[in-house]
């Protein structure tokens, strides 16, 4: 584990603090631990051989199964709003209205495509979205040791489920909080359920008002995995948390955002398409 934490591509503002935090999580054991993870570019890969992998939304944006007019407009929305999402010049509060606009327009646009459940399944299975190397072990071991995993995503929950079913398995220890599609009796998309989840409002999701974290109150240690500043708020509902180890995948605009990530995440991973670091920590936990 020490070798992994000191390897190339692993950055920490305070290595001594991280070492102590990991020791406390490991010594407390698996019965005191829960895991919270983003999906897009966290559990899924950012790139393969230099080529960007799709997110949940861009799986649809890039699909040949959907109209060209949809794809053109969707790509235009991404070109406009993605630079704002990762901007280092705007505050989170300044970004939020833009994210609401982006997600709302993207979802409304998708409803015009007469997308069906069966077509969605085919689109996901034909897509290039891929789980990170080592993610299968990660999912298997969390399930084996009955360790709860909350996947907290601003993507599309239906797509996450299809990815897990197609590339691995949807285990019962997994809870997904995301934007879920609403289909009519004919299986055609008519909208999205519940409140909108975007990159920067994960702290306001209904999961924080539910009894999910209350039921896990004895699991006072958390490993949090994310790739954006907004992901840091995923554990806000853990009122009884003692130790929260925050691991961030810095995938894009590395030089511009490194200082911010090092100040906010305990461990920052750059150019790492694997789950090696979180898996190494889990291996230590499972040995106890």
From TrEMBL:
Q: Does the keyword Nucleotide-binding apply?
A: yes
The record, for InterPro entries, names: HAD-like_sf (IPR036412), HAD_sf (IPR023214), Pyrimidine_nucleotidase_eu (IPR006434)
Q: Short name of one Pfam family for this protein?
A: UMPH-1
Q: Which residues form the signal peptide?
A: none
- Which EC number applies? 3.1.3.5
Catalytic activity line of the entry: a ribonucleoside 5'-phosphate + H2O = a ribonucleoside + phosphate
Molecular-function annotations in GO = 5'-nucleotidase activity; magnesium ion binding; nucleotide binding
Which compartment or compartments is the protein found in?
Answer: Cytoplasm
Q: Which UniProt keywords apply?
A: Cytoplasm, Hydrolase, Magnesium, Metal-binding, Nucleotide metabolism, Nucleotide-binding
Give the GO cellular component terms, alphabetically: cytoplasm
Listed SUPFAM superfamilies = HAD-like (SSF56784)
GO BP, one example? nucleotide metabolic process
EC top class named in words: hydrolase
Query: Which family does the record assign?
Result: Belongs to the pyrimidine 5'-nucleotidase family.
Q: Which NCBIfam families match?
A: HAD-SF-IE
Report what the protein is called: 5'-nucleotidase
The record lists the lineage as: Eukaryota, Metazoa, Spiralia, Lophotrochozoa, Annelida
